[in-house]
Amino acid sequence: MAADTKIGRLEGLDLARFIAFVGMVIVNFSIVMGAEGAGGVLGAIIYGLEGRAAATFVVLAGIGLGLAGLKGEINLTIFTTFKRAAFLLVLGLLNMLIFDADILHYYAFYFLFGALLLPLSNRALGWVIAGLATTAVLMVLSLDYEAGWNWTDLSYPEFWTPVGFVRNLFFNGWHPVIPWLAFLLYGVMLSRWALSSARTQDALMLGGLMAFLLVNAVSAYLQPLLAMVDPELVDLVTTNPIPPMPFYLIAGMSVASMVVGLCLRAAPLLKSIGVLAVLNPAGRQTLTLYLAHILLGMGVMDELGLLGGQTTQSAFLASGIFCALAVIYALIWSRFFKRGPIEALMRKVAG
Fold it and tell me: Which long-range contacts (CB under 8 A, 24 or more apart) does 73-81 make?
């Protein structure tokens, strides 16, 4: 399926970004509030969102990068992406001083390598994705995945050392380039499809659902078999984000496909009843809101003594309140400014 010859703004993608953002807020608030790993329906939702919401975000970033490459001169797109990657690296490292699970500095390298690989065909990108998945498995089998970690408080004391930084970035950090770059490249591949076509949207929804069910079924079947051989081999066939193995990549890509397809398919109806007008301004400010949920959201919770020892209900309530306030803020801001404050700063600094 070829990309549309004339590319307009796909408003469903802004909705998808907002949905992915909400998922990331729920996961991150649950972690810092100590509600992760709880049982019940809410605990199951948190578990299902872990790694999937962030993966969807990266796939959407890849779609954005791919569409930029289709709209303009590719060398200019690559150069601009390099500058934005540098901006995100600085921003992410500053954020690391506050929030150990920062994803922005990883994004910098996703974009760096993604821009370099942008001229490749979809077939070639598919081979790169397969190579990343294979390399991730070989690294987990041959290297110490727990190196540098303090699992007691989920900190990485060696992050600020050269060896620790490289290890965390490419191998065993929260969102390591190998294999997380695969999500961005998958997004680039999707950007070349006819995303405005209902047929493509249906294929993304149905194909994503079938792939998600299949990979989870195969994973559930293989885990007890490998456990009898060597319990440590079970990690190779789980869909858990840590360590990120091939089945996790497939699960993450399938969820992203479903979200993108559903949001694009539902966009015309949601636009007609005014939903997009309310939610999409927040979807266009996800960089600003990502930082806000750490600096403001977690900052307020810290002042109120809500970090640690909280219930899943409290985590969902806090997430709901923050996301509602984010929607209201973005809606008001969009009446006066085209971009969010951090998005405007990045545009001014990096183009």
Answer: 74/118, 74/119, 77/115, 77/118, 78/115, 78/116, 78/118, 80/350, 80/351, 81/111, 81/112, 81/114, 81/115, 81/118
Q: Does pLDDT of 277 surpass 90? A: yes
Tokens 């806000």 belong to 292
Q: Alpha-carbon dihedral of residues 216, 218, 224, 230, nearest 10 degrees?
A: -100
Residue recorded with tokens 């497939």: 250
Q: What is the pLDDT of residue 7?
A: 43
pLDDT at res. 351: 78
Residue type at 259? V
8 Å CB contact between 207 and 257: yes
Whether 56 contacts 255, CB under 8 Å? yes
pLDDT digits (tens, 9 = 90+) for 2-48: 444 344 468 999 999 999 999 999 999 999 998 877 778 888 889 88
Q: Which residues pair with 267 in a beta bridge?
A: none
Q: How far is CA 280 from CA 10, 17, 141, 271, 321, in A?
A: 11, 9, 43, 10, 18
pLDDT one-digit tens code per residue, 75-124? 888 999 999 999 999 999 999 999 998 999 999 999 999 999 999 999 99
Nearest CA-CA partner of 132 in 144, 114, 146: 114
Q: Does the predicted model carry a pTM greater than 0.70?
A: yes
Taking all residues of the chain, what is their mean pLDDT, rounded to a whole number? Answer: 93
